[in-house]
Specification:
Length: about 180
């Protein structure tokens, strides 16, 4: 019997980073990079997103098996593998497209998101600025953004930004990672 899967959508800076992190987690069946939260009409392009004028955030949509890993556990990983205290910024990436955001798919996800933020807030010196909003539309990013780290791990951004994030993930969550 096939297990029931769930979907979550969130952004924590560059989607290449977030995608690379969640591809490693047990129970995650698929990670798709994309855009959400904007107001510009039609499907946005990466170039339009990078302008900061569309209002979209770089996000990932994660399909997961809740019998292996829960939405709450995934949110804790999300909240501790990026900096949820910086507004519209992750490292050197600056702009509204890099905001920390959780797009909930239903009221249960919304309630859990608020609870997880409350739980992890004690671990940070500054207030958490992660936006919690309903998912309206998710646009899949261009093909060359999908599975980016795995196809470009020797590229400078990947080496200097993503590889250290993955090391932190392995250090904090080794038991939750795929072998």
């Amino acid at each position: 019997m096939a297990s029931k899967v769930e979907v979550m959508t969130f952004g924590g800076g560059c989607f290449w980073c977030t995608e690379a992190v969640f591809q490693q987690v047990k129970g995650v069946e698929k990670v798709v990079s994309g855009y959400s939260g904007g107001t510009a009409p039609g499907k946005p392009t990466y170039r339009e997103i990078c302008s900061g004028l569309t209002g979209h955030a770089e996000v990932v949509q994660v399909t997961f098996d809740p019998s292996v890993i829960t939405y709450e556990e995934l949110l804790v990983i999300f909240m501790t593998t990026h900096d949820p205290t910086t507004l519209n910024k992750q490292g050197a990436d600056v702009g509204t497209q890099y905001r920390s955001v959780i797009y909930y798919h239903n009221e249960t996800q919304q309630a859990i998101a608020h609870e997880v933020i409350k739980q992890v807030s004690n671990y940070y010196d500054k207030p958490i600025v992660t936006e919690i909003s309903p998912l309206e539309i998710f646009y899949e990013a261009e093909d060359y953004h999908q599975n980016y780290y795995n196809q470009n791990s020797d590229q400078g951004y990947c080496s200097y930004v993503i590889t250290p994030k993955l090391a932190k993930l392995r250090q904090l969550y080794a038991e939750k990672l795929k072998s």
